[in-house]
Amino acid sequence: MLRTYDIVTVNASFEDEEIRGRRGYVIGEVQADQIGVFVYDIERVWCLHPNDVTATGEIDIEARDEPRGAAIRVNSKGEIVG
After folding, report:
1. Which of 4, 2, 1 is nearest to 60 (CA)?
2. CA atoms in the 13 A half-sphere facing the CB of 60
3. How many CA atoms, within 13 angstroms, populate the side-chain half-sphere of residue 54?
4. Above 90 in pLDDT, residue 61?
5. Dihedral angle sign, alpha carbons of residues 1, 75, 61, 11
6. Residue 50 · residue 2 · CB < 8 Å
7. Element (H or E) spanning 36, and its range?
8. pLDDT single digits (tens) 28-51
9. 19-37 per-residue burial string, b: 16 or more CB within 10 A, e: under 16
10. Which of 49, 56, 58, 67 makes a 20 to 30 Å CA pair with 2?
């Protein structure tokens, strides 16, 4: 089970080549079947099904300890929504 701040890799079979194989960390659950993942290389959040990523066994300590701003919601394409 994935937890907030777990570092993950987007699976090589993921449909969108922009983030396929990239690493990021889980920012939390967006919906029952989607998690938000901050993708390091492109500095953007993507909504993904938990099966689309593989946990590395690491935790992003810096992100966990960083002060938070207002929460945002994004869709499956990483676009900010209401």
Report:
1. 4
2. 23
3. 9
4. yes
5. positive
6. yes
7. strand 34-39
8. 887 778 999 999 999 999 999 999
9. beebbbbbbeebeeebbbb
10. 67
Q: Residue 63: what pLDDT?
A: 92
Classify domain 6-81 at the CATH class level. mainly beta
The vertex-25 CA angle with 63 and 53, nearest 5°, equals 170
Amino acid identity of residue 64, one-letter, is R
Q: Beta partners for 48?
A: 35
Query: What three-state secondary structure class fits 15?
Result: coil
Given a cut of 90, whether residue 16 has pLDDT beyond it is yes
Tokens in use for 27?
Answer: 């920012």
Closest CA to 9 of 21, 1, 18: 21
**Measured distance CA(56)–CA(79) in Å, rounded:** 26
Mean pLDDT for the stretch of residues 54-80: 83
Report which of 70, 81, 20, 75 is spatially closest to residue 8, judged by C-alpha positions: 20
